[in-house]
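hey m, so remember when u said the tokens were messed up on ur end? i reran from scratch. heres the input so u can diff it against urs
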Amino acid sequence: MTGLEQHKTYRDLPALAGLCEMRRAIKSDWSLDESVTRLKRLHYVLRRVHETLIARIPGEPIYELKTLYSHHAYLCAEQVTSIRSRVGEMREPPLGLDKVPDLGLESTLDELSRCPDTVQFLSGVYLVVLPECLAACERLRVDAHPVADAPTVRIAKLMAYELTELCQTGTPCIDCLLLNENEAANTKWKNHLQAYLSSCGSIDGTLDPQDGTPEPWYPNEKKSYQHEPQRDERFRDPYNAGVNPEAFLYDEQYAAADKTLMIYYKRLRELDVPEVMATILTDLGNAEPWEFHMEMTRQLWDEARHAMMGEVGFASQNIDWTEIPINFTWSKNLNTQLTPRERHGVLFFIEQGLMPKTGKRYEWEVATESGDPLAKLFQDFDWADEVLHAQIGRRWYVPRYKSLNEAMAFGDECWSQVLSNWQEYKDQGLTEHRNWWPELYTKVCKHRGVTPDPNTLAFHETYEQKRADLETL
């Protein structure tokens, strides 16, 4: 009987804390260098995917893709952070995490970032790059020593779980948008990206590199990124600023049940916050450390979730949100009129304004009083999220100034400089600033089986002279 066969645990309890069998544990075909090398390559690719998803948010017109990119960028950021933490446990600084580990990987991600076509971009991310990352995580899970490198095995498992979910969510989007006549071109594009990865031994460098590096598919294209937000055709009359929901919400004469409609509108309209935050992150780039990008990406995703809360809220009221003008001029004006630091200042100023009792607490109280359990639920979490966002701002924005008051004053000043273009948009024929509130209110009253209140029906305050915090322009 060999020593391995003689090895027994007490009363046949699971060996080695359940990590593996002893037969696997005695194998020594692994090293710390190999673990770090593979993690660094994964880190580079996932960070580039994160950056590319973020950069596409403003210019992507389709609402569902804006929220998808927001969510998946956040999940990639969480994975990048876990890799950075693990590498830091195995190596003394400098860790070399900001270096390009392989020119083939760089070329692959450069091609992806320059891709102007939505379906090709989706195919590159969800049919090529992320599936290859998933395969690399599975190889890492199997190859890493299960005892000596147990922390790496753990994060490989967690990353594989989330990457599977990302691919399962992103892949159907391609089938929904792909036209039959474009299938051949899309296949060639996927093969093109796959050839790039094959030239460098795939994501983790474990496969035999194939000879020859493909010529760039989009050599003359810049990174697909634009400041001015785009919206799809369902966003009717997006320049419409003919209803000031804050003026209605904070007016005590109106019923809480009716105010929840304005709350749902405000939540859905928060789609413009990811559009602004995406430009802050993309424009600042390496001027800020990874931790800044991680926390701000979490906030960006939260704001996208808030928009979806509004969508769900209207659905609960049997309201088609596309029938309501969802204004986007806040993100349009900030993105085209201010620098990234100034945009961040406005964002922070607004966040801090939500912290007093007249802010998020008040919205939660209104939702609670309304008797709408969904509104109460959403405002409970919306309030919690905004507290977190205010803390993120205090960590990353305020230290640039001498005091909190100075930081607040700068944000207020920047917001005051933004031209609302209320009259200009009307003069250009982009909107009539139609008062859409009576139509929405009447429809909801009919669904509720109640008669519209004449005073509530008559509400008609606009953004012409006031901004969202009710300060006079």
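this time it looks ok to me. Residues 16 and 22 are 8 Å apart (CA to CA). if urs says something different then somethings off w ur setup not the seq
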